[in-house]
Amino acid sequence: MPSFDRPTISANHRLLILLAVAVLARALTFGNPVVHVDEEFYFFTGHSMWQGAWPFVDVWDRKPVGLFLLYAIPAAFGFPAGIWAYQAMALASVVATAWLIARMAERLGWGAGATAAGIAYILWLDLLGGQGGQAPVFYNLLMMGRPGRSSNRIGESCAAWVLPQWRWPALSSRSNIRQWSRGWSSACGCSLQSGGGAGRLLP
Question: Which is nearest to 43 in space by CA: 129, 135, 155?
Fold first, then answer.
């Protein structure tokens, strides 16, 4: 009887597989400046900040300032290089999150399906509108980067800078951030279960 708790490939090979899948799944959007209206605005605001504009004063939106600061980094390269830059950042975040999901699967005893779980996350992003640089692409990594209870506050604080909320008071509510965290944990669990099921089909 095969053992489902043991990884079937090395960590380096898994990383290469996840990177290849992510590149193939997102290749059609590379260099596209109009993948999603939200990303257009984040990039525009980040670019405007380099021109001296202030978020929520000269350019207004309800999103947290962390998103604009994040996009200000690729916006410094101008257009169109900045578009490629933020999409490269999103690609790196997606691959890192998928790799952490695979690691979690191993720790939970689903090593044979760990890589499949990471691949499932990458593909589901495309199905749910996350093929570009939407906010969840970045804050999912922050959520997965919380290995223990002692680091919860750090992860929640970082996530508060990029989590889109309808009202500013919501950003000061730790309970709301925890709800986002629990929701993402549930979604991650679905990915792990899919990966674990796929692992049972592997030789």
Answer: 135
